[in-house]
């Protein structure tokens, strides 16, 4: 049984398929069994979050667990306590699962190494965001009715600084998907995957497109004059997409009219809120698999 999820590589393909099936069972069930009653789950987030933290909270409460969000801004971290001491103090209170988000890429590896309780990485710097990639996979799995083999996904934007892209680039090819990276040169990581600077070219072959937010908080140089300059070449627009019936994904938060134009966010092809919805069921399946006795 998995006890620490740092990145998607911690799960093998059959464990992942089992999570997708369990998430879909939760999705279609009328009443959810409170399988995590008495389990204590704490979220320790050093970076802001809307969807991820609320999704974990919703998932935990649907399963009857006790969920608490630790307020980092008001903690003794500001009094000089080390991160490790904060972790050990939380754990000493009898935690079953700690969920963290931190701006350092190696944070999740460090946290996991020093904890005895179960652990989920909810975003570590630019390195990994495994539950986002798993919920993206679930969205695609359901959309294509399980037939992912040979489908091409164009991932567009600040790939180099995106932990969501990183996790998806590891996960999606394992289920037969082809990944094309679409970005200006300074947003591309060193990679063996196909790349292009032309969104139009990528859309001609893509079966699905995933937009990303420009991670300005992680840039040390201003790479574009403004996000509007970037949007001229990389914003996903209805005019570029034409009538192609391909799903549009984005992990959120969306920079409207920079990543995706307003009209496309209201288009039936847009799966952004479906991703958010399925994220709750995916996280229920994951936490249940880690904690249910
Ligand atoms: C992403 C993240 O935090 O990595 N958001 C999320 O969890 N859904 C993407 C982002 O912040 O751009």
* Cα separation of the termini: 11 Å
* Assembly state (oligomeric): single chain
What value does the average pLDDT take? Answer: 95
Q: Give helix and strand order, one letter per element, not per position.
A: EHEHEHEHEHEHEEHEHHEHH
Q: How large is the count of helical segments?
A: 11
Largest sheet geometry:
5 strands, parallel
How would you sum up this structure, described in words?
The model has no long low-confidence stretch (mean pLDDT 95). With 293 residues, the protein is α/β, with parallel strands linked by helices. Strands 1-5-4-2-3 form a five-stranded parallel beta sheet, sandwiched between helices. A five-stranded parallel beta sheet has the order 8-7-6-9-10, covered by helices on one side. It is built from eleven helices and ten strands. Bound molecules: N-carbamoyl-L-aspartate. N-carbamoyl-L-aspartate (NCD) is lined by residues 51-52, 123, 129, 132, 163-164, 213, 251-252. Pathway: Pyrimidine metabolism; UMP biosynthesis via de novo pathway; (S)-dihydroorotate from bicarbonate: step 2/3. Residues 149-289 form the Aspartate/ornithine carbamoyltransferase Asp/Orn-binding domain. This is Aspartate carbamoyltransferase.
Compose a concise summary of this entry.
It is built from eleven helices and ten strands. The chain is of the alpha/beta class. Catalyzes the condensation of carbamoyl phosphate and aspartate to form carbamoyl aspartate and inorganic phosphate, the committed step in the de novo pyrimidine nucleotide biosynthesis pathway.
């Amino acid at each position: 049984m998995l006890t620490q999820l740092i990145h998607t590589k911690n799960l093998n393909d059959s464990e992942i398929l089992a999570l997708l099936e369990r998430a879909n069972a939760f999705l279609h069930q009328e009443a959810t069994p409170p399988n995590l009653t008495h389990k204590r789950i704490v979220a320790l987030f050093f970076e802001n979050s809307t969807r991820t933290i609320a999704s974990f909270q919703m998932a935990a409460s649907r399963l009857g667990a006790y969920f608490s969000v630790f307020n980092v801004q008001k903690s003794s971290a500001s009094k000089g306590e080390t991160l490790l001491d904060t972790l050990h103090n939380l754990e000493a209170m009898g935690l079953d699962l700690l969920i963290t988000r931190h701006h350092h890429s190696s944070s999740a590896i460090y946290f996991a190494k020093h904890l005895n309780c179960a652990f989920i990485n909810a975003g570590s710097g630019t390195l990994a965001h495994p539950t986002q990639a798993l919920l993206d996979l679930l969205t695609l799995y359901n959309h294509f009715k399980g037939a992912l083999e040979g489908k091409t996904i164009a991932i567009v934007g600040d790939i180099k600084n995106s932990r969501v892209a990183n996790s998806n680039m590891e996960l999606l090819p394992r289920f037969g998907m082809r990944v094309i990276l679409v970005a200006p040169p300074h947003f591309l990581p060193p990679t063996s995957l196909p790349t292009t600077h032309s969104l139009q070219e990528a859309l001609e072959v893509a079966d699905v497109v995933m937009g990303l937010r420009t991670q300005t908080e992680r840039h040390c140089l201003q790479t574009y004059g403004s996000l509007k300059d970037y949007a001229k070449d990389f914003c996903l627009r209805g005019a570029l997409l034409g009538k192609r019936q391909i799903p549009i994904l984005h992990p959120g938060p969306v920079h409207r009219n920079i990543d995706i134009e307003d009209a496309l966010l209201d288009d039936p092809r847009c799966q952004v809120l479906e991703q958010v919805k399925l994220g709750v069921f995916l996280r229920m399946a994951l936490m249940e698999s880690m904690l249910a006795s």
